[in-house]
UniProtKB/TrEMBL annotation:
SUPFAM superfamilies: Isochorismatase-like hydrolases
Enzyme Commission number(s): 3.5.1.19
Protein family per UniProt: Belongs to the isochorismatase family.
Domain of life: Bacteria
Alphabetical list of Pfam families matching this protein: Isochorismatase (PF00857)
Name of the protein described by the UniProt record: nicotinamidase
GO aspect biological process, one term: pyridine nucleotide biosynthetic process
Record's keyword annotation contains DNA repair: no
Amino acid sequence: MNTSTRIFDATASFDIDPQVGFTPLAPSELPVPGGDEIVGELNAMAALARLRVASKDAHTPTAPWVVETHAEMLQPTGLPNADLTWVSHCVPGTPGYEFIPGLPAELDYDFVVYKGVSPSLHPYGACFHDLADKLSTGVIEYLKAQGIKNVIVGGLAYDYCVKTTAVQLAKAEFNVIVNMAATRAIADNSAADATRELGNYPNIRLVASAADVAVALSAL
């Protein structure tokens, strides 16, 4: 087996919450600026990996953390596993729940995580259902059982779910590559905080595009 084949076989790409509800296509939900522009890069990075996995928020509109307006968001809730208020978003059966057009159908992924199904849970990372990282979603175990060593990540939003998932994967001892062209942030200040936090992990690399992902993989 040559080196490029070995790296490909040990690599997965992870589309984190690339849903319409996080794009300007759903302005009443959580429209991340430019969130609808990441599809090409997500597809390009998937071509560099043997497996393609995804996560989807799947929330009830009556969860205790739901507020009516964007002005009421980001306030502490006092709940142990849903720390901040958010407007309703990514409700199954609504357009906001669906993947952004141009991405594969759910059944075409190798593994899909459904996040926040319980009203009392609003996790950010895709690897655990709770905020204390105790109740696994199974994706770490799946990737390890498949012999995956390297995970390329992108999706929405960079400063919350992408950042947290990258950290969870790094703690699970994967080599993590964040494709910055395949993600967008809610806000500049929280994006800067996310970048600083990711810099604390030697096994997380931030690269500009899928072309740079290929270079980073070849260096592993």
